[in-house]
Amino acid sequence: MPYPNSLRNRFIITLSVMLVLVMGILVFILHQLMIPNLISEERQSAHVYANALQKSIDHNASTLSDMTWQWASWVSTREFMAGRLPDFPATHITSAVFADHDADMMLITNSNDGVVRVAGRNPVTGEFTSCARPEGPCLWTLEQVRQIQRQLPVTDTTPRIGVSPEFALLSTWPIARQNSPLLSGKLTLVRFLPGQWQPNPADHTSTLTLSAVRQGTDTDADSTAVDIDSTSDDNLRLTLSRDSATPGYLVVMSTRMDRESLRDGIKRFNLTMLGAMGLLLALMMLMLWVFRTIVLRPIAELSRYAMALRQAPGEHLESPPSWLQARGDELGVMAREFQTLIKELNDRNAHLKALTNRDALTGLGNRRLLDRQLPRILSLTHRLERPVALIMIDVDHFKLYNDFYGHPEGDQCLKTIAETLSDIFQRESDLVARIGGEEFVIVLPDFDLDRAMDIARGVCTAMEAQCLPHERSPTHKYVTISAGVAISSPEHPLPGEVLIKQADEALYQVKKGSRNAVGCARPG
């Protein structure tokens, strides 16, 4: 039968609570430890990526600076500035040189910041032009020349990015006079930068979006900054800020970094959680099966056994299952204790049953045993076509015996009579019972009237031969008995009550006429 609060249900609830608790701990670990750690690693990777971009930008600037320094250091450049090499522009400032050095524009100024030469590739037409002034075919350089001239008084040779009229990487180096510490002018190289710039052409994923913002008064003009912003679950936005060549402006370069590592880390952890959940569920089912096999099944068997004992009180109790008694654990000990207890109960029940069917004083059967066994004896014997004799015995003048000798002696007298009857009637089929104070009944299967009368007379003789003194008896100086015999034959079967009544009437007639004698009931 099901139990609302069974150990199985409690065990399942306990395992479920443990499963929820473990999953809660895993979720806590994910959100409080794993994700912050993954984000920290992601930001470290972003800083490494930003540093790589910075190095690419610095490499571009360094390359342009080296090339500018070489141009400014050439002897031919100094001679040109001194007016001794008029064909310098035609021989040295050519389209091929610009292509080889990946430069887009060159500006040479004198010591008074006046334009001496301007050349470059028109970003609109792609045509190479070289002029003494930013006019005519070189008119396209005018605005760029103006922006560069604003920076010419600055002696810093650090390459910078200009933001106007367009984004461009600028590098300026002084041109020294021959054999003199004085400057004869400056040479500036320009590399135009697209709005979507790839500082490292080998890495097509590293694309920077350039923009310009006004610089605050509290901003360090020499500083560079990296800002990492998690704009979405898919990308990180990296923003690199640099001082520009244009006064009052910062160059802001931004790019996006895929958050694949974070997604993969969370995905792996989720898969680990699912695997852990599946493993825990499988472990819970295994533990439930083991718990059911090792604990619940034996306990259920003992419970059913206990209920069977309760529902069948007073009957012979079967032992617990042998497989349960053979266990070496606590349940096996419990089953063996049950076995010992049941054995003791069976012994006690048998003893109690014997006590309920036996006379406490004489040890013979009592009236309860006679009432239960007589119908069975009659039925079985008549089925074999044989008669049943019943002898009822009464001790003569037993009240006088008790009054004179006392009740202890009277009890001893009854015991002696019981022992005498037990010695005479030893067949398993015979039944001897004490049904009253001094009344006894003997049931003899397969005895007809004549044999029953003879055996009754023999009992009277045997009792008289015991020579128990009875000084107050008017019949004899020794204790004597009287007997009444009744017969139930297959031809005229009698119920047990009728048979007893006929024997009692026969005994009454004997006691009425005389004592120490045998009488019989007339067959019906």
Automatic annotation (TrEMBL):
Any one GO biological process: negative regulation of bacterial-type flagellum-dependent cell motility
Domain (GGDEF) ranges: 386-523
Xref: SUPFAM superfamilies: Nucleotide cyclase
The entry's keywords: Membrane, Transmembrane, Transmembrane helix
Record's keyword annotation contains ATP-binding: no
Molecular function in Gene Ontology: diguanylate cyclase activity
PROSITE patterns from the UniProt entry: GGDEF
Reaction(s) the record says it catalyses: 2 GTP = 3',3'-c-di-GMP + 2 diphosphate
GO CC list: plasma membrane
Cofactor(s) required for function per UniProt: Mg(2+)
TM region(s), chain numbering: 12-35, 269-291
CDD domains: GGDEF
EC number: 2.7.7.65
Gene3D superfamilies listed in its UniProt record: 3.30.70.270, 6.10.340.10
Annotated NCBIfam families: GGDEF
PANTHER family (UniProt xref): DIGUANYLATE CYCLASE DGCM-RELATED (PTHR45138:SF9), REGULATORY COMPONENTS OF SENSORY TRANSDUCTION SYSTEM (PTHR45138)
Protein name: diguanylate cyclase
Upper taxonomic lineage: Bacteria, Pseudomonadati, Pseudomonadota, Gammaproteobacteria, Oceanospirillales
Gene it is expressed from: cph2_4
